[in-house]
Amino acid sequence: MDPRRFLFAWALSCLATVLTQAYDVQLEVSGTLPQLCFTSEDIVPKYVNSICQHHGKTYLGGFFNRFGNQSAQHFVVLDSDDKIDWVGTIGITTTLQRVLESSDTENVANSQNASFLGLVNSIVCPEEEDYVYIGGIFTTVTDDESEQTVNNIVRFNTNSRTFEPIKVPEPLVNETNIGFTQHCGPGDGDDCVDDEQVAMVRTIKCASNGGDSCQTMFVGGYFDKAMGTPVKGIAMVDLTNFSNPIVTPIGDKGGGGEASEGVDGLVMTIEAVDDGEVVFGGIYDDPSESDVPYLLTRWSDDKGARCVLNRNMLDQTVCAVDTPPLICCELIFGPVYASLKISQTDLLVGGEFINTFDLHPGMTINLADWLQLGYQNLAIVSATDDDGASSDFQSQSLVGGPDGDVRSFTCSEKITDIDGYERCSVVYITGSFNNWMSFSLNTTTLAIDKEVAFATPQHIAKLIFNTETRGYEPQAVFGDSATAPKFKVQDVSVNTAFVDSEHQKLYFGGDFPSLNNLQLYQLAGTDNAEGPLNIPNEIYGNVSTDSDFYDCLVENEATELSGANFCCRRGSYCPGGLVDISCPDGWGFLCKSNSIGICPEGSYCPTAGTEKKCDKGEVCRLGAIEPRPCEFWELCPDPGMERPLRVSGALLGLMVLSAMFTLLIASVRVFSWRKRVGNLNQDKNFHLRYNAFKRNLGAGKRRQSQYEGVVGYEKLGDKEQEGMVDLSSGLSDGSDRDSALRQSLLGDAAPVDIGLPNGDALSVETLSSTGRRELKIDIGFKGLGVQLVDGKKILNGVTGRLRAGRMTAIMGPSGCGKSTFLSALTNRIRDGGRVLGDISINGQKRPLLSIQHLVGFVPQEDIMHRDLTVRENLRFYAHLKANPNMSRVQRRAFVNEIIDILGLSHVQHSLIGDEETRGISGGQRKRVNIGIELMASPLVLFLDEPTSGLDSTMTQQLIESLDKLAQLGLTIAMVIHQPRYEVLLKIDDLLLLQKGGYPVYVGPTIDALPYFTNFLGRACPERTTPADHFLDVISADPQFEHGNVCDSWRWYVQNTSGAKGNIEADAEEFADRVIPGRSRPSRMYQTYAFAKRSFYQTMNTKIAYFTDCVLLVFAGGMVGAVSIEEIQGYQLTMMTSGLIAVVSSLKVFGPEKIVFMRETSAGVSTLAYFFGKMIAHLWQILLNPIFFLGLYYRTAYPSVPFWDMYKVVLMSQFSCSGLGYLISASVAQKNMQIAGVISGLIAVLLSGLNPTARTLRSFVVGLFGLWCSYGPWTMGALLIKQSLGSVKALYPIYCGELDTLGYIDIDNSTLTDDTSIEESKASLEEAYVGDLKHMGTQYFVFSLLAFFIMSSKAKNASGLMGIDALRYLCRVDVWEPFLNLLRTGKWDYPEELTPREKEERESRMRKESYQLSQSTETGNGGGGGLGLFKGS
Predict the structure, then answer these.
(1) Over the stretch 881-928, which tens digit does the pLDDT of each residue have?
(2) Are 850 and 879 in contact (CB under 8 A)?
(3) How far apart (Å, rounded) are the C-alpha atoms in residues 74 and 9?
(4) Cβ neighbours of residue 1003 closer than 8 Å, sequence gap 6 or more
(5) What is the pTM of this model?
C-alpha cells in the first residue's frame, strides 16, 4: 500500500475521532450531560494556547478557568507589570442550570457540545488596530454589558473592553450569519443534526500591511459556513466594512474556473507568503482535483490551490504549472500544526511528520548527490514557487529536529538578509518534545542514524541563523541553568511562546500544570539577571484550605497560585477536564471534578463543594444542606447517621400511642361509669313505678277456671252432657259468650298513669300516640289467596277477621301457607306472586300498606343488634319509631313500660349476644324482637312463628307478654305450632289452614273444640292437647258428610249464622273508629339516633376495637421496619392502610343488612340510617391513620411531613371506606371479606407504578381502573409531597420520576433555577390537592352507589319497590285485568267457564296446590310455607 495514502487515511480517521467523539456522563440530575472530549492534544491544545501583546498589554487565551487567584474563563489581559488587568468570559458560564436548560433534545448526549466548551486557539494583535481577534471553540462571549452569540470568532475592543461578533447583516436561519459554523453534509447520514455539529477556528492570520492590520484575514479551522457563506476549512474574510464582511472561499480554481468551497478537514496553520498568497497546513483532504495528498498547500487567487514546491525543483519547467506533479512537491507525511515565514524565500513549518530523504534533479550514480539527510517535525520549505528565488537567498535545509511534535513559532530577532529583506535570526520553537535529534548517514548500512544533540526538558528550543553557513542552528533555551523551569512528568507541552523584545521577556504557555501552564522568563542581554520571573499573583502557600482552588493545586502538585489552569473548583463538576459546570449552593449537590451527585446520606453540604459528616446527635438525609439535631427521644449514637435508630422511633411511637390509648380507655371508662350510674337510677325508679302498675294489672287477669270449663279437655264430654256448655247455641247466636269472655278477661283494670303525654295511661291510646280509646283496628279478609307466576295457588279463599284487643293464632301443618298468609296481608309477597281477594280495615276496603305506620311485623328470626343491650336496643328504636313529641323522660318511661310488659327488667342491661358473645336466652330475644316493633306504638302486630326454637316455659312467658299487649287493645296475629294447653288458654281466636292454603276453621278459640267434636265428629282424645288434636284431624284430611275438612268448613260458614258473625263484621261496629296518622322523627333526628347507636355499639365491643387499633399500630411498625427504600414504604403504606380501611368499613353496613332491611321496612329513613352510620364511622376514619402512622413514621422516617402524610392516608381511608361501603351493600356477607381484599389488591396493581399511570391512561379499561382505584392518587400525592419537600437537587429527579410514571406531566429539564422550580411547585401543589379531591370524590361516588343499592334493597324488603317489583310489573298477567277493563269495561280477569268447569278447576287447583306444598315445605320449626315473603 502506498505509504502516503496510508498516512492520509490515518489523518482523516484521527480527525473524525477528534471532532465527533462525545461521551455520556451519567448524571443523577438530568440523565446525561453533553460535552466534547478531544483525544489529541496536538489538535486542540489545552490551557494556555496563544499569547500576544498589543499596545503594552499582554493578551492570553486558551483553556482555563483560573488565572492567578481569580476566576477567568479562557481569556485574560495583563498590564505592563504583568498583573491582571481584565478578565473575560469566552463561552457560556457553564452552570448546572444551563446544562439542564439545554437538555431539550431527544438525544441529550449529542446536544450542541460547543455551547458548553469554551476554548481559545488563536489570538492576533494587529498593531494598527484597537482590536484583538480571538478564535477557538465557543458560541458565546460575555463582557461587562451582556452575553452575545459569536460562533467561534470574535474581536475584542481593547479600549471599551467589549466583544463584537463578526457577522453579515442578512438574517439567516439559526444565526448562521454570525461567525463560523458547521452543518450536516450529504454524507453525514440521517442521524446528523445541524444543532449538534461542532465547529472550530484553529488559526487566524492577519494579511494586511505585513500583518499589522486585519482588514483582510485568513481563518482556518473546521467549519463549512462562514457568516452564512458555504466555505470549508479555510476562508479569507475582508473586514474593510466591518458591518458587512465579505467571505472568499479558498480552493482550486480548476484552470481559471470558479474556486471551490475550501477543504474537507481541519486547517491548523496559515502563513501569508505574498500579497494574496498563503500557505496553509493541517489535516484535510486534497483541496484540488489531483490525487496528491496535500497536508501543506499553497494558494493564490489566480492559480488556486497547489502543493508547495520542493526548493530544489523551483527551476524545473515541469513544476511551473498550476498543478505540479508529485515529483515537484515538498512531501510532508504528517499533519502540519505551525508555520512561520522566516524570510522572503523561506518558510518554517512544524508539526508531526518526518522526511528522511531529499530528491535532486541530477540523477547520477553518486549516492551522496541523490540521497541526503532529511528532517522530522520541523522543516524549511520554499516560500515562493518561481525560479526567481535564488539559492543564494535561501537558507540551508534543516537536518534532524525535535523528537516530538512542534506546535508554534515566534520570531524574537530579525536581521536584514543579503537580498535586502528581513530574516528572522532567532526563532523560538515550542511543542511536545524533550530532545533535539541530529541525523547522520551510515554509509555502510545506508541507514539514517539518530542521536540526541541536546535535551529540551522544557519543550522549548530556538533556531539561530548563521550568516556564514546560511543555516539555522538549533540551541537549547535554558540548558543546564539552575534557574531553568523544572518540568515534571505530567507537564506535556508548550503550546505557544511570545518574546517581549523591548523588555527581553519570554512568555511561554501550554500544558504544564506543575508550573501553572504559564511562565515568564527574563532573557539575557539586559541589566536584569537571566532567570524566571513570577507573574505577580498570590503565592500558593498563602492559599487557605477553604479556597475553591486548593484541591486543584494539590492535585497538580503546583507550587504557587500564579499562571493559568483549568482548575476544577470546589463545587464544580468537570467531566473530562473540559467543562467547568458550576453547581449551585444550597441545592443539596455535592460536585467533584469527576462526579456530580447529591450530598450523601449521613453528610451535609453547606456548599456544593463541601461535604461534612454529621456529628453524634445529628442526622442528615440525602441532599442535606445542614444537619438536623436529634430530638431528646431519638437515639443518634454514631456520627454520619441518616436517621435515628428505628428503636427510638418505635419507643416514641409507642409512648404517644400509649398515651392515646390511655386517654381512649379513660374516656370509655367514664362512659361506662356514667352508663352504670344511669342504669342504677333507672332500675330504682323502674321498680317503684312498676310495682303499682303490676297491682293494677293483676285485677284484670283472666278467670282461668271459667276458660278451662269451656275449652278444657279433662272432662269435656261430661260437661257437655250435663249441659254446662251449649255449643250449638253458642255457635249460632253470634258468640255472645265470646264478647262476654273478652270483657271478663279485660276486667275493670284502670289505666296506670306513668306520666305520658296528657296524663294518658299505657293502653292502646298511648301506644298509638293519641288520646282516643276508639283508635282500634280490625282487619278483614275475604277470599284471600296467593297465586304464583305459573298460575298455581298456595293460599286459597281464606275469609275471616283479626279483631282489635284479641290475639289470633294461625295454625296448621307445615307448608300449609301460614307464613304466606301473613305475607299476603302485609304485602310481603315476592318473586312475582300475586295476592288475590279483598282486605278491609275497620270495614273499609283498603290495603294494609295504607296503615303501614300502624302495623308491626315481628319476623321469625331474631333480627336485632346483638352488640347492644336489651334496653339500648329498645331505647334507640324508641328514638327512631316513637312519637317525636315525647320528652326524654316520657320516652324513657315508655321504654320502661315495654320492658316490664315483656318481662325483661332483670336482663335489661345485658347484651343480646351472638354465637361468640354470651347474652340473653332465646325466649328473651323473642320478647326483645317483639319490643322493637312495640316502640312504634303499633295498633296491629304480626308475628311470624315467635315461639320457634323455644321450650314450653319460654313459649308461655312470651305468650303472656303478648296477652298483656292484647289487653291494651292491640290487634295481634301470629303463626304458632302446636301450643301447649296453658298457651292455648291465652289465645282468643284461631285460624286453621290445611295444606294448599285452604281454611279449616276461622273463629274464637273457645268454639274450635266444639266445632271439631260436634260438627265434624272428631272428639279430642284424652291426654291430647286440643292443638295437637286439631292438627291431627287436619293432616289426616278425612271425608265427612259435606266433604273434607275444607269443604265442611265452607258448608258450615254458609249455613251457620254464628260462624258468619265470627268472620264477617257489622259495619255499625266501626262507626266510631278512626284510623290515625302517625308522625315519625325527622330524618335529622333519626340520623343522630343512628350515629349515637353506632357509637354505643363500638363502646360495647371496645375490646374488638382496641384490638383493631393495636393491629393498626403493629402494621405501621412492621411496614416502617421493612421499608428499605422510601418509595417502597409509600407503596406498602398505600396497600396496608387501604386494605385495612376496606376491611374495616365492611363492618359498617355488612353485618347489619338484615337489621337495616327490617328497620326500613318499618318506615325508618334509609337516608338517615346511611348518614348516621357514616357519621359514626367518621371518627374511626380520622383516628386510624394516626394509629398507623404513629409507629410507621418513627421507624421509616419518610421525607414527607407527618401531617401531609396524614392527609394523604386520611383521604385514601375515605376512598377505601367508600369502596368498603359499596362492597358491603352489594355483596353477600359471606363473600364480603374476600371481595374487599381482592378489590384492595386490584387497587394496588393499578397504583400506577407497574404498569405506569401513563400506560394505564392509554386505554379505556386502564383509564377507568385509574379513576376507581385509590392507589394512583395515593401514590401520586405522596410522591408529589416528597418532591415538594425535597432539596432543589432532588426536586428535578423526583419530578422526572413523576412524569415518567405519569402522575403529572412536567418537563424536568426546565427546572434549572429558583424561579422555574417555584413555579413548578405551585403546579405540583395544585396536583396534590387535586389527588386529595379525587379521593374525596371517590368516597362520595362509592358511598352514593352504596346508598342507592341499600335503598333499593330496603324498598324491596318493604314490598314497595325493588327488583321483585320490577319483575312483577313485567309479567303479562299483571296487566291482564287492565286489558280486560279496556275490552269489557270490567275490572276482572276474563272468565268464560261454566259453573261445572269452575268447580272442576277449583278441585284440580286444590290438589295441585296440596302437592306443591308437600314438595316445597320449608321454614324453621316446620313452618315458613314456601318462603315467598321477606320477613326482614
Answers:
(1) 887 888 888 888 888 888 887 888 888 888 888 877 788 888 888 888
(2) no
(3) 33
(4) 735, 800, 989, 990, 1011, 1059, 1062, 1063
(5) 0.64
